[in-house]
TrEMBL record, chain A:
EC number, UniProt record: 7.1.1.-
Organismal lineage: Bacteria, Bacillati, Bacillota, Clostridia, Eubacteriales
Class of enzymatic activity (EC top level): translocase
Keywords, sorted A to Z: Cell membrane, Membrane, NAD, Oxidoreductase, Quinone, Translocase, Transmembrane, Transmembrane helix, Transport
Name by which UniProt lists this protein: NADH-quinone oxidoreductase subunit K
Reactions catalysed: a quinone + NADH + 5 H(+)(in) = a quinol + NAD(+) + 4 H(+)(out)
Species annotation: Heliomicrobium gestii (Heliobacterium gestii)
InterPro entries linked to this entry: NADH_UbQ_OxRdtase_chain4L/K (IPR001133), NUOK/Mnh_C1-like (IPR039428)
Entry's Gene Ontology cellular component terms: NADH dehydrogenase complex; plasma membrane
Family recorded in the similarity comment: Belongs to the complex I subunit 4L family.
Gene field: nuoK
From TrEMBL, chain B:
Main location (coarse class): membrane
Transmembrane segments: 6-28, 35-52, 58-80, 92-114, 142-164
Organism encoding this protein: Heliomicrobium gestii
UniProt protein name: NADH-quinone oxidoreductase subunit J
GO molecular function term, any single one: NADH dehydrogenase (ubiquinone) activity
Keyword Cell membrane part of the UniProt annotation: yes
Keywords: Cell membrane, Membrane, NAD, Quinone, Transmembrane, Transmembrane helix
Length: 107, 170
């Protein structure tokens, strides 16, 4: 049923869910801080796909979903810039990017 | 009918490009390969935006993600030296629990949205092009968040420079 039906909202939402879960897995299991940032970027992209798909299929009269995904892109760009600056700064201090070694806050 | 087949083919092509690249980002052991596949995944998402009538956002996606973010991550990979490139993207000891959580999240979300009947709130598609509509909303209803986003981006980038370069004591 789902495979022969024309490509609709559910297809895009399932794709977004799969992309989100891949990013979630990456954030959970990776040891490198840069790989964690990559996982977060994948999750933000999945959210953007959902926003634009809802915009097209649910509320086609305006462009609110696209405007919100622009804000998501802005925040993602700021986040990756600050995150990489932190990674480079920490690397200079500790010569590692492994999140297992970032244990300053440990008791 | 033919248009529908072309649309479906384009959707499944871009979807498989996006998902396979994302899987490569997550599962490969060399972080340079992961960074390159991340850019490929962003390009696939841009293709999906074209299918969703969001041509302006597809251009933004290619420029901001495929260009800036992917290059920034490549810089981050290059500026942090490692002894052995083969094991730069290793997993920690939570692999089983991470996979379990991801699969569970996918199952729950997929089940929820596959059986939810989404109804359009209004059937008439907008007559203006995407760039016109976005500009009208961004400089009209959403002008305050737009200005806040501009300030956020400026502050974040200045802060990133200070963090990475280090500020001199006056």
């Amino acid at each position: 049923m789902a495979l022969v039906a024309p490509v609709g909202l559910t297809h895009f939402l399932l794709l977004g869910t799969a992309l989100f879960c891949l990013g979630l897995y990456g954030v959970f299991v990776k040891r490198n801080a840069i790989a964690l940032l990559m996982g977060i970027e994948l999750m933000l992209n999945a959210v953007n796909i959902n926003l634009i798909a809802f915009n097209k299929f649910i509320a086609p009269a305006n462009f609110t979903g696209q405007v919100f995904s622009i804000f998501v892109i802005v925040v993602a760009a700021a986040e990756v810039a600050v995150g990489l600056a932190l990674v480079i700064s920490i690397y200079r201090d500790r010569a590692t990017t492994s999140v297992d070694d970032l244990d300053w806050l440990k008791w | 009918m033919v248009n529908e087949w072309i649309y479906a083919g384009a959707f499944y092509g871009f979807a498989s490009l996006t998902l396979l690249s994302a899987a490569g980002v997550v599962f490969l052991k060399d972080i340079v390969h992961s960074a390159l596949l991340l850019a490929a995944s962003f390009i696939g998402v841009a293709g999906l935006y074209v299918l969703l009538n969001a041509d302006f956002l597809a251009a933004v996606q290619v420029l901001v993600y495929g260009g800036a973010v992917a290059i920034l991550i490549a810089f981050g990979v290059m500026l942090t030296r490692r002894p052995n490139m083969k094991e730069t993207n290793a997993n920690n000891r939570w692999v089983v629990w991470g996979a379990f959580t991801a699969v569970l999240t996918f199952a729950v979300c997929g089940w929820a949205l596959a059986f939810t009947p989404f109804k359009p709130v209004d059937g008439t598609a907008a007559q203006v092009s995407a760039i016109d509509g976005i500009a009208t909303q961004l400089l009209g209803d959403f002008v305050v968040p737009f200005e806040a986003a501009a300030i956020l981006l400026t502050v974040a980038l200045v802060g990133a420079i200070i963090l990475a370069k280090g500020a001199k004591e006056a």
